[in-house]
Amino acid sequence: MNDKKPNIVFAFADDWGRYASAYQGRPGENSIHELIKTPNFDWVADEGALFLNAHVPVPSCAPCRSSVLSGRYFWQTGMGAILEGSIWDESIPTYPLVLEENGYHIGFSYKVWGPGIVRDAPYGGDRNRYEPAGRSFDRYSFVVTEASKKLGVEAAKNQILEEVRENFDSFIDDRPDDSPFCYWWGPATTHRSWEKGSGKKLWGLDPDLLKGRMPEFLPDVEEIREDFNDYLGECQAVDAGLGVIIERLKAIRELDNTIIVVSGDHGIPGFPRAKSNLYNIGTEVTLAVRWPSHVSPGREISDFVNIMDVAPTFLDVAEVDKPEGMTAKSLMPILLSEENGQIDDDRDSVITGIERHCPNARDHQLPYPTRSIRTTDFLYIINFESDRWPIGAPVGLDGYEFPDTEGHRVAQEGNERKTELYRPEKPQIKYYQDMDDGPTKEWMVSNRHDPEIKPWFDLSFGKRLREELYDLRADPDYLQNVAMDPDYQEIKENLNTKLMSVLTEQEDPRVVESPPRFEKPPYAGPVIKEYYEDPRFG
Fold it and tell me: 193-203 b/e with 16+ CB inside 10 Å = b?
């Protein structure tokens, strides 16, 4: 009998929504999942469990990661609850540091927590960073496209995968003899930007095959299909990197003593209703778990789970008590069951929300606060300040301008510095800042006055009602808000009661404080210039 504690590998990709070939046939025939090939993710799912209803607590990078690392709702993480302006509260326990205190060798490559101060603090910061070969993998399509001019595509791919291999090996080489390890592999490959046309050039994905498969809230036009196609290529790149990690685990004979969990921090960037929104395409993510002799292979689980649930799960795997304040629920009872479908009757819904994404998206650096509850059949959303611009104001369009204030100038300069640091090829655009820049955004903005496009544009960029309710049985792409329909009032009231009960019980400042802290500095208002200049920022 092996008495050694299990190793933990968490592959957590930036901006990877629920796009993997393991999800073929969902929803139904002709889905986008039919076009993508993710053999390594599929192997993890086939050898273990595939989760069909996994959602993030918040579709925004830093706050989501605050939740995942701490096992708390994002509003319970102090200044970790927002994106820019985020400051980590080191008094909050996180699962990696708890594991380290209990004998685990911990480390990471690529993105863990940020943007914010102190960068990657919840994982021990630079002392636990393993990137001796660099982090070019984060800019996969640019690096491979350039290298392929001399090496050819396949050799260029192998070259960048060698970086993943060397980074992981450096972590293993640093491990004290035979100690259990906990490794976080966090590629930002699927984050904007990516090389235009790379989906076809590097992966052979045909954007024309997306015709008729796009969500109904997106115009089914060539420019948007190509953009989506390129994103699918980035998803395949993440999967290729995952394959390297699996290969190395096998080579060091640790594969079968390792729990592998694969997911992402929110949905696709640079598309309407996706990242920074509470619709399914924004909050729904991949999730697969392999743990030999514990998780029966080939299982499909329909329970609603919040990705922050991995924190208490990993502590359970290591047989370590979870710290006080960790409000997430361990997945262990689900994983150890041999059943398919719905296992825990209490997991019939999931709560998501968001406060402030980009600080300069609205007048006076205010948030767009919203909370939701998702069930099998319905999505209910409360937009607490529905008079504000949900995706950011149309600055520079049709005569709209922000007041000329120091706060807006600092925030804009901060955005430009961040762009220069992490995505130098990406231009900085002022309008609708809560949506990442890219060809889809540009196409929709450029065509916003076209009578045929305007309904799509208004749906995605226009202001919203305080309450939204979507009947996903008849409207899977959440086009028809039935919140005011008399036939749905009882359903709406029940969902509202359930949502508000959780928010109250978990002491969400948005509902238990008046005014809520999220409406006041430092959560709202100008981000101080020193934040962007702090050397610990990342």
Answer: bbbebbbebbb
Q: Kindly state whether residues 132 and 269 are assigned to the same domain.
A: yes
Domain count, the chain: 2
Residue with tokens 């509202």: 496
**Element containing residue 58 per DSSP (H, E):** none
Residue 47 has pLDDT above 80, yes or no: yes
SS3 string, 352-419, reads: EEECCCCCCCCHHHCCCCEEEEECCCEEEEEECCCCCCCCCCCCCCCCCCCCCCHHHHHHHHHHHHHH
Range(s) of the domain holding residue 390: 352-533
State both tokens at 266: 């929110």
User: Residues 301-322: pLDDT tens digits?
Assistant: 999 999 999 999 999 999 999 9
How large a percentage of the chain has pLDDT more than 70? 94
Closest CA to 208 of 224, 190, 192: 224
Q: pTM for the complete prediction?
A: 0.95
Cα dihedral sign, 112-115-118-119: positive
- 245: tokens are 């990690």
- The answer to whether residues 231 and 162 belong to one domain is yes
Q: Which residues does 420 contact at the CB level (< 8 Å), separation at least 6?
A: none
What pLDDT digit, counting tens, does each position of 174-220 carry? 999 889 999 999 999 999 889 999 999 999 999 999 999 999 999 99
The encoded tokens of residue 313 equal 């799960």
Query: For the stretch 407-440, what's the b/e string if a residue is b when 16 or more beta carbons lie within 10 angstroms of its beta carbon?
Result: bbebbbebbeebbeebbeeeeebbbbbbbbbbbb
The DSSP secondary-structure symbol of 469 reads E
| Residue for token pair 């200044």 | 79
pLDDT greater than 60 at residue 422: no
- Residue 1's pLDDT is what? 40
The verdict on residue 526 lying in a domain is yes
Closest CA to 247 of 350, 165, 329: 165
Euclidean distance between CA atoms 36 and 298, whole angstroms: 20
